[in-house]
Design a protein that fits this description.
α1 packs antiparallel against α5, α2 packs parallel to α4 and α2 crosses α5. The chain contains 18 helices and 19 strands. By secondary structure, the protein is α/β, with parallel strands linked by helices. The structure holds 2-acetamido-2-deoxy-6-O-phosphono-alpha-D-glucopyranose and zinc ion (ZN).
């Protein structure tokens, strides 16, 4: 087998002088320099599967909201979680080995260290987004998988959350935790049926315009719609920016990242005042809502808003079902969450808030410790997870009145509607629509729950971002020495001030966030802190 590995690695030589890192979202960079990485990721996926006695491991080829010329790859654990940290280190190591022989030796060393018996079957599920480079990179990955002797299930194009779903379904098939049928049809049927049940005959008002970033979410949403109730009974959806025939248009002037960063609708949007809109990113694991208010002003309803909306709804339903004493709901945020959102959850909803570093895996881990964990990053990544004990409590609960039964049915349908394996833009927006329909709210009512503090996010280019070390979920700097004290001084000068600086995990820069009572103060604070960081 080692000869096969040497040959496969030789076939896709690594460009000289490049250093690869398995970061918060896997490997991600210009597609033209990723061939060698994909082959080696194939080897790691096979090893990871063998170290888990042949459980299915997922490999997703995507660069999410990045420009069309980029690509990337990430590995998915058996229940749909992000790759375990020690395997991130292994992935980085193997990607940077100089010679094919070094790769092969490292492969065998890791197999021994992690008790990955090379005679055990290795099972790997593979999918990709719609980028032009995807098919070439898939070939490179296949070469690695073949050399490692893995059994491969290839799904072609999928959204990232669909791939996570397949992995979880395959690993739970036939058990008491069976998650669903591991096919695309199975996915649409599961979420489509749950949407219908969760609505309980309530019809969402108006329509929803979904911007698909010209990515894989477009064709997949079109399929999903076929499994939703007809628009006369359910939700009328207008799909826009779903051109995957022109891959160079991916994420260009559209998509969740465009909307969140520019604080405006995609220029292609024709929605009128009060019309609900949402934008997915290139691989459909992120969603943000927005609308034009009565004065034609753009209003964003970001991940913070989705979290507060969903937490308040689930809180109500849990209370109505008579479960408030046995189940505690918590919200997990990052430092980017608007201070007003945090305050709303703690003081108005009276729920606990945890703060973690940026990156889905940190939020997910924190949410796993809660009975019902609602986690969203402000940028729209997120989901709700229910602990195994919670699922058990909900399954066994006997309602004592028709009102309790009604709420219990809604909670059970929501559990099916929420993709438990990972944040899923399609499942998330269906959930938002269910909540709005039940509350009989439009976007204006949703927006009115609290007022965001004015804020500003700046990107500061520095000579070495690695010197910026943080603590307290990235809210405070411990290095460079003395910098935090200077930031504190500036923060104290403004009303309701808060600011932090952290090294980006995806770009060579430091990000500075500031918020304050007024726009002028927030902008001023962000600028001053950026000056300190430079
Ligand atoms: C990655 C993370 C995302 C995070 C972003 C921060 C995942 C799947 N993705 O895209 O959650 O918000 O990085 O980027 O975890 P930054 O470190 O450049 O600010
Ligand atoms: Zn994404």
């Amino acid at each position: 087998m080692s000869d096969a590995i040497v040959e496969a690695v030789k076939k896709h030589p690594a460009p000289e002088g490049l250093v690869y890192t398995y970061g918060t979202a896997g490997f991600r960079t210009k597609a033209e320099v990723l061939d060698s990485v994909l082959t080696r990721v194939g080897l790691v996926a096979a090893l990871r599967s063998r170290s888990l006695k042949g459980k299915w491991i997922g490999v997703m080829i995507t660069a999410s909201h990045n420009p069309p010329e980029d690509n990337g790859v990430k590995l998915v654990e058996p229940l749909g979680n992000m790759l375990q940290e020690d395997w991130e280190v292994i992935s980085t190591e193997i990607a940077n080995k100089a010679s094919p022989e070094d790769v092969s030796k490292y492969y065998h060393d890791i197999a021994t260290q992690h008790k990955a018996d090379l005679d055990t079957p290795a099972r790997v599920v593979v999918a990709r987004d719609t980028r032009a480079s995807g098919s070439r990179l898939l070939g490179c990955l296949q070469d690695g998988l073949k050399a490692a002797g893995a059994e491969v299930k290839e799904y072609g194009f999928l959204t990232t959350p669909q791939l996570h779903y397949m992995v979880r379904c395959l690993n739970t098939e036939g058990t008491k935790d069976a998650y669903g049928t591991p096919t695309e049809k199975g996915y649409y049927e599961k979420f489509g049926a749950a949407f219908k049940t969760a609505l309980k005959g309530k019809k969402p008002s108006g329509s929803l315009t979904v911007d698909c970033a010209n990515g894989v979410g477009g064709p997949k949403l079109t399929e999903l719609i076929k499994h939703l109730p007809p628009k006369e009974e359910g939700l009328e959806i207008f799909v826009i920016n779903d051109n995957v025939i022109k891959p160079e248009s991916l994420n260009v002037d559209c998509g969740a990242d465009f909307v969140k960063t520019n604080q405006r609708a995609p220029p292609s949007s024709k929605a009128g005042p009060g019309d609900r809109c949402c934008s997915l990113d290139g691989d459909a694991d992120r969603v943000v809502y927005y609308f034009k208010d009565a004065n034609n002003v753009f209003r964003l309803l970001d991940g913070d808003r989705i979290a507060t909306l969903v937490a308040s709804f689930l809180g109500d339903q849990v209370r109505l079902a008579g479960l408030a004493d046995s189940l505690k709901i918590g919200v997990v945020q990052t430092a980017y969450a608007n201070g007003a959102a945090t305050q709303y959850v703690e003081q108005h909803l009276k729920l606990k808030v945890d703060c973690t570093p940026t990156g889905v895996k940190y939020l997910h881990h924190a949410a796993e410790k809660l009975d019902i964990g609602v986690y969203f990053e402000a940028n729209g990544h997120g989901t709700v997870i229910f602990s195994p004990d919670t699922l058990d409590t909900i399954a066994k609960h006997e309602p004592k009145s028709p009102g309790q039964k009604e709420a219990l049915d809604v909670i059970r349908a929501c559990i099916d509607l929420i993709n438990q394996s990972v944040g899923d833009a399609l499942s998330d927006f269906l959930l938002v629509e269910v909540v709005l329909a039940h509350k009989n709210w439009g976007p204006q009512e949703w927006l009115s729950t609290y007022t965001d503090l004015p804020n500003r996010l700046l990107k500061v280019v520095v000579s070495d971002r690695k010197i910026f070390k943080t603590t307290d979920a990235e809210r405070r700097l411990v290095a460079p020495e003395g910098l935090q004290a200077q930031i504190d001084k500036e923060v104290q000068k403004v009303r309701q001030g808060r600011s932090f600086a952290r090294a980006s995990g995806t770009e060579d820069a430091v990000r500075v966030y500031a918020e304050a009572a007024t726009k002028a103060e927030a902008e001023d604070l962000a600028r001053k802190v950026s000056e300190l960081v430079k």
